[in-house]
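Researcher: Quick test of sequence recovery. Tokens follow.
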């Protein structure tokens, strides 16, 4: 059915919800999703069932050669995890996203993402031709196909941030995956400081010991938010972040 003339305009004039919500959707387990999150908005991701994992890549939408720099993000903030009050740096010293809300407390920047060989070795072969929508997907392939929609290629894949997962490192340097780290309803919110292409994949973490292929769905929403104020927690959490915000704000002059 076609809408009546002027219906779209009337809908656009309706009062914005108090929380500034613009749009939301569910991303199934094993799927990949992308969107250019505009400055002045924030992306909220919710783990619907608990035990989820979301590999996140991000790029400056106006110039995708500027992208998420994981080593600089960790080094500049003296951290080995991401949570509320920290930011995601680009390789130009600017801030792409700020983590303004977080009910999980630890998001993994160390574990990377799965590939086809790992998934087949761990969970067995299950092709689309045989299993249709229940086929076994891997994060590398999903992310590569998704960034291809924006003219990017394999060389543009970067290390990811794994939302909702926790990996800790012991004194000998061994990495340990924490099972069931995230509970149902856990959420994280990322405010865009630049117009940012965000790419998400919901395949299981490569270190997840679960022998069953069981990626979890997430709820993704976008809402309007104000820019970072002078007393913003992300700006003040590290001296380096103040400089990062200044670099970012200069870009918008």
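Model:
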């Amino acid at each position: 059915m076609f809408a009546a003339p002027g219906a779209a305009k009337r809908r656009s004039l309706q009062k914005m919800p108090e929380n500034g919500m613009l749009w939301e959707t569910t991303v199934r387990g094993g799927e990949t999703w992308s969107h250019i999150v505009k400055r002045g908005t924030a992306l909220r991701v919710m783990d619907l069932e608990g035990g989820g994992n979301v590999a996140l890549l991000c790029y400056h939408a106006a110039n995708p050669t500027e992208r998420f720099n994981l080593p600089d993000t960790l080094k500049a903030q003296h951290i080995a995890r991401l949570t509320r009050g920290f930011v995601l740096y680009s390789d130009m010293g600017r801030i792409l996203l700020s983590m303004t809300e977080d009910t999980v407390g630890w998001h993994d920047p160390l574990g990377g993402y799965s590939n086809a060989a790992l998934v087949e070795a761990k969970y067995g072969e299950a092709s689309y031709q045989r299993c249709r929508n229940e086929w076994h997907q891997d994060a590398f392939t999903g992310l590569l196909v998704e960034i291809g929609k924006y003219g990017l290629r394999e060389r543009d894949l970067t290390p990811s941030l794994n939302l909702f997962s926790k990996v800790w490192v012991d004194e000998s340097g061994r990495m340990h995956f924490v099972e069931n780290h995230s509970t149902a309803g856990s959420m994280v919110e990322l405010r865009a400081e630049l117009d940012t292409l965000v790419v998400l994949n919901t395949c299981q973490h490569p270190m997840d010991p679960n022998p069953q292929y069981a990626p979890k769905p997430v709820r993704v929403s976008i809402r309007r938010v104000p820019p970072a104020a002078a007393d913003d927690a992300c700006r003040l959490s590290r001296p380096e972040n103040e400089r990062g915000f200044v670099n970012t704000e200069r870009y918008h002059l």
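Residues 1-16 have pLDDT under 50 and may be disordered.
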